[in-house]
Amino acid sequence: MANKTREFILKKLEKIIDNYMKIEAVREKAIKLNRELLINSSKLMATIYSGDMEKAELYSRNLIKLISTINNELMVDTHGPEEYIFYTKIIRDGLKESVEALLLYIYSREETADYNTFFKNIPDDIFLDGVIEFIGELRRIFLESLRNNEIEKAENALDTIKTIYNNLLSTGIKSFYISNYKRKIDGIRQILLRSIEDYIIYKSSKRGEYDE
Questions:
Q1: Alpha-carbon distance 103 to 180, whole Å?
Q2: What is the CATH number of domain 123-212?
Q3: 3-class SS string, the chain
Q4: Which of 11, 119, 120, 142 is most exposed by smallest CB count within 10 Å?
Q5: pTM (global) more than 0.70
């Protein structure tokens, strides 16, 4: 009986070790992909704010190619749950930043884009984290628009923040599905309230100009 138990454990351990060796073989690739995602996301956002949309399109395509590589080589059905979780942890930050940057790109272009191409197979919790990060960029656009007296642009940013907040608030998603979800939603609420206050102050400061 003892021999059969030892034999069973050894076979199981052999399988587990073999599985983790396969994971380790792809680990460096996952780390490199994450680094490339972060670099291209940062460059995409920088070129958008500088107004160089030609370069922005280049970096957006780079991100789409990287995400496609991740879908085809890391997030494939042949991987087991341990591998999926392991790779997702490595590339989480890169994917989150990519979602934020690509959302900003789509928003800045002010035209219809192929959203499915951009965000295909990105895990839901990572996509939501990217959307939440994007709120911060909308806040930045809102404030810059007010400073430049671009009221319609500011109102569009504010309305987008409101829409996202209201939808996320009504989902009923719990924090055990999305890490710190309630705290993240509270953060968006604070951004929204500050933005509404800024908008009211701006309109009050311009009231005399409108009355003339």
A1: 22
A2: 1.20.58.2140
A3: CHHHHHHHHHHHHHHHHHHHHHHHHHHHHHHHHHHHHHHHHHHHHHHHHHCCHHHHHHHHHHHHHHHHHHHHHCCCCCCCHHHHHHHHHHHHHHHHHHHHHHHHHHHHHCCCCCHHHHHCCCCHHHHHHHHHHHHHHHHHHHHHHHHCCCHHHHHHHHHHHHHHHHHHHCCCCCCCCCCCHHHHHHHHHHHHHHHHHHHHHHHHHCHHHHHC
A4: 11
A5: yes
Structure tokens, 207: 């009231």
First-to-final CA distance of the chain: 97
Residue range(s) in the chain whose domain bears CATH number 1.20.58.2140: 123-212
The CB-side HSE value for 71 (13 A sphere, CA atoms) comes to: 14
Cα–Cα distance for residue pair 22/19, rounded to 1 Å = 5
Q: What is the pLDDT of residues 59-114, one digit of tens each?
A: 999 999 998 888 777 765 445 555 666 677 888 899 999 999 999 999 998 766 67
* CA distances for 13 relative to 10, 20, 82, 85, 116, angstroms: 5, 11, 15, 20, 41
